[in-house]
């Protein structure tokens, strides 16, 4: 009896250890983009069986079944699910590109919104700096609503693993590329910064280094970069390359100059920018006031985007604030909805997708 009890205890401890490891590290089968399919329950609360369930891993959430499709070891959607042909080899790792059949990373990796269309004002939130702090990054991924978009710093650590977890929790994400600010001597943007006085050819190794840091992003956003983005020549070349690769550009600057939008339009590139910085005053009172301003902007304009840096206060406040939006008649949507991705071809062309 003692031997049996000891063996039982060992098995229980082993199973508990595996579960704890899985919670901390995520599923080894997960990949950067994970596709979610909605499966309806029948009247007996049984989930319909089909061949999709055999391919995926099931998770019950919010009264519906989500199926996370099988992914390849590199984390891309398998060929059957439309993730093939979107990467090219380079000395800096796999870089995004358009597939031969015309699919783009922007179209494939942006989160799709399923449901009835309405005229409710919409708000998108982008939280940036993921990867720089592992504990906070995992907290943001797990605690924030799935419709909150994430921005991964090119300087972050363990980015493929974090991106994989982000997809499993339903988030889409952008890549933050460091660009030269006006006060480069005072604001250290790191050794891979895109510089305003360098040519596109000279900046390309740094750009490709950033682009190769992870996969599964639908576009890039700037980290700093006011001086770089003020130079028409380098911005034009950057936008041309992003267009060729099938990405979009999100401008993380509420005072974004119209000239940048015009350059994106000339390049045929999908472009959007933030409405306001939510944590310009990074206190509970400051963030609360900013979120109210964001709601007012959404009601006035129909769509507003807020950007906030990752820190404990912002994660907790946005998580709680998001739960109040439905009662206010406001819809929380991913940032990619600002680009109208995945609609008819004519609209894609107008948005540079």
Strands, count:
14
The major sheet is characterized as:
9 strands, parallel
Strand content of the residues, in percent?
Answer: 15-25%
Structural class: alpha/beta
**Uncertain residue segments:** 18-82, 342-353
Whole-number average pLDDT?
Answer: 80
CATH architecture of the largest domain: Alpha-Beta Barrel
The CATH superfamily of the largest domain is known as Glycoside hydrolase/deacetylase
- What is the number of domains? 2
Radius of gyration: 21 Å
Q: CATH fold name of the largest domain, please?
A: TIM Barrel
Tally of helical segments? 11
Give the termini separation: 68 Å
Q: Helix share of residues?
A: 25-40%
The oligomerization state is single chain
Q: What's the level 1 CATH class of the largest domain?
A: Alpha Beta
- Overall, the morphology is globular
């Amino acid at each position: 009896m003692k031997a049996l009890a000891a063996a039982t205890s060992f098995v229980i401890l082993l199973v508990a250890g595996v579960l704890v490891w899985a919670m901390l590290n995520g599923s080894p089968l997960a990949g950067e983009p994970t596709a979610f399919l909605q499966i309806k329950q029948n009247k007996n609360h049984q989930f319909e069986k089909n061949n999709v369930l055999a391919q995926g891993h099931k998770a019950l959430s919010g009264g519906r079944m989500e199926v996370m499709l099988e992914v390849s070891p590199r984390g891309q959607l398998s060929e059957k699910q439309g993730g093939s042909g979107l990467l090219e080899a380079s000395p800096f790792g796999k870089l995004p590109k358009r597939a031969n059949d015309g699919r783009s990373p922007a179209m494939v990796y942006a989160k799709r919104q399923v449901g009835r269309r309405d005229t409710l004002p919409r708000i998108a939130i982008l939280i940036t700096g993921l990867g720089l702090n592992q504990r906070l990054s995992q907290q943001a991924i797990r605690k924030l609503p799935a419709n909150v978009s994430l921005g991964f710093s090119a300087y972050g650590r363990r980015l493929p693993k974090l991106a994989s977890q982000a997809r499993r929790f339903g988030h889409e994400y952008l890549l933050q590329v460091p660009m030269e600010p006006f006060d480069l001597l005072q604001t250290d943007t790191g050794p891979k910064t895109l510089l305003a006085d360098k040519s596109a050819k000279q900046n390309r190794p740094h750009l490709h280094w950033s682009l190769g840091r992870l996969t599964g992003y639908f576009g890039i956003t700037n980290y700093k970069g006011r001086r770089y983005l003020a130079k028409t020549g380098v911005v034009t070349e950057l936008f041309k390359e992003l267009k060729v690769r099938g990405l979009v550009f999100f401008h993380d600057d509420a005072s974004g100059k119209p000239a940048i939008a015009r350059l994106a339009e000339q390049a045929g590139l999908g472009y959007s920018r933030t409405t306001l910085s939510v944590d310009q005053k990074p206190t509970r009172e400051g963030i609360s006031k900013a979120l109210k301003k964001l709601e007012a902007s959404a009601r006035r304009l129909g769509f507003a985007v807020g950007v906030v840096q990752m820190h404990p206060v912002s994660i907790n406040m946005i998580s709680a604030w998001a739960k109040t939006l439905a009662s206010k008649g406001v819809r929380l949507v991913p940032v990619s909805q600002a680009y109208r991705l995945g609609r008819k071809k004519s609209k894609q062309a107008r948005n540079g997708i």
